[in-house]
Specification:
Subcellular location: Cell inner membrane
Protein name: TRAP transporter large permease protein
Number of helices: 27
Helix content: over 70%
Largest sheet: none
Family: Belongs to the TRAP transporter large permease family.
Shape: elongated
GO molecular function, one term: transmembrane transporter activity
Number of domains: 3
Function: Part of the tripartite ATP-independent periplasmic (TRAP) transport system.
């Protein structure tokens, strides 16, 4: 009865418009003062120490900061250009590209609202301009933006891991297959609608444009490698990965893309020399990047830095020959033929050898597939991007009328100049108004989220003291509740709660209640976590408190009810997806189990 009163207070406060953090904290405080021997001082101490021991929560402010820099620093625009170049030519391609862009940005940000803002600001306006209805565009982005909390890294997954003491790394791995599946289901739905309604399609821009956009977006996309590769390569913990991601995002946004900060508007090549120096800049720039990557690898493996010097020297020699040949082949109309041959020699042949090695080794099943996919990204994609970037550089060089030697000189000169500017403006960039504004926005969001979690943890403390999870577990097991029925109840609770509460706060409250029951029923805790995250996805696009609805409404300049109606067709897809994730456990558990072994729970 006492606990019913506690939850009644929470619901009543939320119903009259009290902020969720205050509703949770005030209800818990009043309950402790009336029904326990706790003093007001001890409650204040509990609030102050609410997050003691929850060290994984330190990842949240860093992921939020990285997301803020990525949203402001031009990464989203480059990712959208890449997505359009890949799939924009099919029927409904711009909408499908919007989903792909959301998936890619989700793998950088860990936040659904940030994904909607970063992608929706550009894509919704572009879709309307291309002939799509505004409602359709808003519905697509509102739903696709929810992938921000499902595709790793995910802030909500960090909260669940902290609330239940499961591995953050396992949760991130578990979100990969469901995240990709949800994105593909949305894309297929859009394509079917596009065929029925004869929606617009773009033009195929050619492989040069595809690889050029990959090159432009590569610095942002490489953050996925930094985060996930670092975690599963054993280089750093998820919390350390989040901190490194925020520093990396700052460097890329300020000094490489230069879309914010003191260097905003200063390109790596002056406009007057852009055509002449692009080919030379790419040859020398790729050589520098090659040296840095090998140097980092040598340092991590304890090898000599001479390895990096030799690798960069070999790369430079090959790049000079290939660049010179490309500068001669493009005017003769043989640029694409030379590029294809170079990709075969430097990419396809090594890839085929790697695939042969995997297939003839003792590695089988999922690990073999993962190694082959990794080989494609490591052995084929970089040479293809580099070679086709030389094609574009040679085309620009032909338009300028200059020679290959001149391009090298101009590109090298401007590479030195641009890096000198980076050094000179390194300290001012820390105090620039753009940096301050980004830090302020990230700080405000962090404080809001952490305050909700802190108050939710007080409620969790009350529930633990009253042994509510144990009583509920005993009651459900005594009633003969099985795994299927239990998961139906969990989904109903989360779907209803998700309509009224912020995801992180709801998970901190519900996870400790359902976690012991799930363990008793033999449900994998990682599987349970993904189910909860998918429910939070749906909660973010259902009224009255669906956060993505408000964000999309602001981005698209539409009323919230209009956004709700626009999102409904795609919301049905997410409901089907929720059923699949709930009752096909291997979607969530296959990767974590294959890579890290079975989950071991100690009660």
């Amino acid at each position: 009865m006492d606990v019913a009163l506690l939850f009644g207070m929470v619901i009543a406060l939320l119903a009259i418009g009290v902020p969720i953090a205050v509703a949770l904290g005030l209800s818990s405080t009043l309950f402790l003062l009336v029904f326990s021997d706790s003093s007001l001082g001890s409650i204040a101490q509990s609030l102050y120490q609410a997050m003691a021991g929850h060290y994984t929560l330190l990842a949240i402010p860093f992921f939020i900061l990285a997301s803020s820099f990525m949203s402001t620093g031009g990464v989203a625009r480059r990712i959208i250009d890449f997505a359009i170049a890949i799939i924009g030519h099919v029927r409904g391609g711009l909408a499908i590209a919007g989903v792909l862009a959301c998936m890619l940005f989700a793998a950088l940000s860990g936040s659904s609202p940030a994904t909607v803002v970063a992608v929706g600001t550009i894509v919704i306006a572009g879709m309307v301009k291309s002939g799509y209805s505004k409602d359709f565009a808003a519905g697509v982005i509102c739903n696709a933006g929810t992938l921000g909390i499902l595709i790793p890294p995910s802030i909500v997954m960090v909260v669940y891991a902290s609330a239940t003491d499961v591995s953050v790394g396992r949760m991130f791995l578990a979100g990969v297959i469901p995240g990709l599946l949800a994105g593909v289901m949305l894309m297929v739905t859009i394509y079917v609608i596009a065929r029925i309604k004869n929606l617009p399609k773009g033009e195929w821009l050619g492989f040069e444009q595809v690889f050029s956009t990959i090159l432009d977006a590569s610095w942002g996309l490489f953050l996925m490698v930094v985060i996930l590769g670092g975690i599963y390569g054993g280089v750093f913990t998820p919390t350390e990965a989040a901190a490194i991601a925020s520093v990396y995002a700052f460097i890329v946004s300020i000094f490489i893309y230069r879309d914010m900060g003191p260097l905003k508007g200063r390109g790596w090549l002056p406009e007057a020399e852009a055509d002449t120096g692009l080919l030379g800049l790419r040859i020398i720039g790729f050589t520098v990047v090659t040296f840095l990557l090998y140097a980092v690898g040598a340092f991590m493996m304890g090898a000599s830095v001479m390895v990096a010097i030799y690798a960069a020297a070999v790369f430079l020699a090959v790049a000079l020959v290939l660049g010179w040949a490309m500068a001669r082949a493009v005017p003769a109309g043989q640029g694409l033929r030379l590029a294809t041959g170079a990709v075969v020699v430097f990419g396809v042949l090594p890839l085929l050898y790697a695939i042969y090695s995997v297939l003839t080794s003792e590695v089988t099943g999922l690990f073999a597939v993962i190694q082959i996919i990794g080989a494609v990204f490591v052995l084929l994609l970089p040479p293809a991007v580099f070679v086709f970037s030389l094609v574009r550089g040679a085309q620009r060089l032909q338009a300028s009328g200059a020679g290959f030697g001149t391009s090298l000189a101009v590109g090298g000169k401007n590479l030195i100049r641009a890096n000198a500017e980076n050094v000179v403006f390194a300290v001012p960039a820390l105090f620039h108004r753009d940096t301050k504004a980004t830090l302020l926005e990230a700080g405000k969001l962090t404080i809001m989220l952490m305050f909700i979690i802190a108050n939710a943890l007080i409620l969790k403390h009350v529930l633990t003291d009253e042994q509510i999870p144990q009583h509920i577990t005993e009651a459900m097991l005594a009633a003969g509740l099985g795994p299927v029925t239990f998961l139906i109840i969990v989904n109903i609770i989360l779907l209803i709660g998700g309509q009224f509460m912020e995801p992180s706060g709801l998970i901190v409250i519900v996870a400790p209640l359902v976690f012991p029951i799930a363990i008793e029923l033999g449900i994998d805790p990682i599987h349970l976590g993904i189910i909860m995250v998918v429910n939070m996805e749906i909660g973010m696009i259902t009224p009255p408190v669906g956060l993505n609805l408000f964000v999309t409404s602001g981005v698209a300049n539409m009323s919230m009810m209009r956004v709700v109606r626009a999102a409904l067709p795609f919301l049905a897809v997410l409901f089907v997806f929720l059923i699949m994730v709930t009752y096909i456990p291997w979607l969530s558990t296959m990767l974590p189990t294959a890579y890290m072994g079975p989950e071991i729970i100690t009660n």
